[in-house]
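[job 0412] stage=fold_complex status=start
inputs:
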Amino acid sequence: MPLLDALPTPRLRWEGRHPNVVLISLSLIMLVALWTFDAVSMAPNRIVSGTGYGALEAFGWPGALLATLLLCAIGLFAWEPSRRHYRALLAAIMMLMVLMPFGLLASHHLLLDPELPNARLGIGAAYWVTLFILLLCLVEVRLRLNLTRLWPTLLLSGVALIWWLCAALGLDNLALVQEFRARDRQFLSAVAQHVKLVSITVSVSIVLGLTLAMLMRRYARLQKGAFAVLNFLQTIPSLALFGLLLAPLAWLAANVPVLGQLGVSGIGTTPALIALIAYSLLPIVRNTYTALEQVSPETLEAAKGMGMRAGQRFWQVRLPLALPVLLEGVRITTVQAIGLTAVAALIGAGGLGTFIFQGLGQAAMDMVLLGALPILVLALVVDAGLGALAEALRPGGTQ
Amino acid sequence: MIELAHVSKRFGDETAVDDISLHVPKGKFCALVGTSGCGKSTTLRMINRLIEHNEGDIILDGQAIEAYDPVKLRRRIGYVIQHTGLFPHWNVARNIGLVPRLLKWSVADTQARVAELMNLLGLPVSEFAHKYPHQLSGGQAQRVGVARALAADPDILLMDEPFGALDPITREKLQDELAKLQARLHKTVVFVTHDMDEALKLADHLVVMREGRIVQQGTPLALLQQPNDPFVDSLLGGLERGLKQAALTRVKDHMTSMGPTLPAQSRIPAGFSVRQALSMMLRDHSDRLTVVDQHDVPVGELTLRRIIKEAQLDKGSTPRE
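[job 0412] stage=fold_complex status=done
writing structure:
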């Protein structure tokens, strides 16, 4: 037995080894979902709605048994948590995520009727619920093992790669794959447009937000008014704001020729950007302002007493100490903008929202997914990336 | 040298500092003592112009402080504050090297100076240079604070309750080290504290403040012998005053040469304080102690009678070396 394992584990860290109730309940929910909800659905074509199949029919008994055993293992490891058991939990979670596309391959094989080449395999509720809960489990295990955000990001990228390979190579009849194949060019340009809209929104908001926050610090009176306006903007439903901009911008474009030449019009990119920036300003300004104000007055007083000039105090002390909270604002704003940009498709700004609204119009849920899933992935990637950056920038590794 | 002449400071209608005059000669240690809100911190912060005074003159090395550029003035005055004010995003070496960097010293000079100061303050470079403030204990952090204040070798050091947030044992240790450091460096120090024992222990010149005014100032011994006010008396410990005075005098100043009688059983080193001698007498039920030198060789004796008699007559014995 290795020496380290023979040493007593510090009790505090594992909370006296009480069962981890969170993980146990999550594993139970997943078990219930696996055996009650549909794992997959199969439809003979795009128009007809499909029939659902449970885990046993979809994966065959070996697959269903394997999934059940892994889920039980999560519950059992969580019953008596230790560092080793959390590692085992991480392994079980990752294994389930990796096995999920192979489950789809299995049902592809078991359920597909060779005489119906247009049959479509849909992903069922059991899958979505399990995937979502596994992500929650991953967060819990990450915190318990004290891992940085980078780890789950790397692991999930690996999982995503495996999913993609399975989809590309063996899941021809998966509805999602078919929707993608029907419009792959359109899909890529939609992703590009989505990213473009979000990037412009976030970079303009950062510049405007920082300027506004600085002005607020200088002119106390501005602070109340500006926050009131930004808060008010935030309360307008996004759809309404897009709509409200339509008329004035169309009028402007028609009456001020310069603006029209610049591409301003009632619909399209311009009103979308204006609305998106309006929404993004509040979180950026609020976080920047708070971040700059929360720096300890004693530290700043010391900086002054040491003979630092105002500029040096700002750039060398206030700003670096504010940076983690400030970046948190950028993170919230970006994630919010990624979601809101989907709505911008309604006024012809393009992006992944196009698929969502088209799919809703045609009652084709798989097409909605084709728009929604990449939005989700984008949001998760940005969230993890900026979160890791903020973590790395914490002064001297403090909390 | 620092000179304050009829200095006042008002915040709105409130007078924080009221017509105070004070003289700190070069190389001397001046302690400002008083209850909280008595204006002692304000007085200190007026010297490096963190607060601008309203009336009177503050003169530094023969020149009114208004004549200095405030930033340049602060760079030549060391400043230590209670909660250290260390920059949490910089490691120890970078914190200490701040003022030399502001003064545009070369990198090599700054590094050498930082290493020198860390050694001086008992912070081994290899162990501490790359630590961040949150990884330090309170005592270590305040050592870094003192090192940072000394970095550019200023003549003047302002210390605002530097040991106020430390536990009693660490506080006493740092006080002893500061006393040693001062004996070596001879900075002109203004030290704010509400702890009278700390002030008595460190100061050459003691200033008692109340409600923005100076109530009494003088050497610690002079104040102990003749507090001119019940407030000063109570700050100095009332009934405990006699013992505090005894703590400031050395055994060797009161001993007599060996008498004709046999040496007493209890021995006390000549460098100890009379307070310690009194305690030893009480403990050993004896009114006579044998005084020994550092090699434990008897050099004289000390009697209770003599301590009491000299305390009566004492007008100017040398406090501490």
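[job 0412] summary: The interface with chain B takes residues 298-299, 301-309, 312, 317, 320-321, 395-398 of chain A (CB under 8 Å).
[job 0412] exit 0
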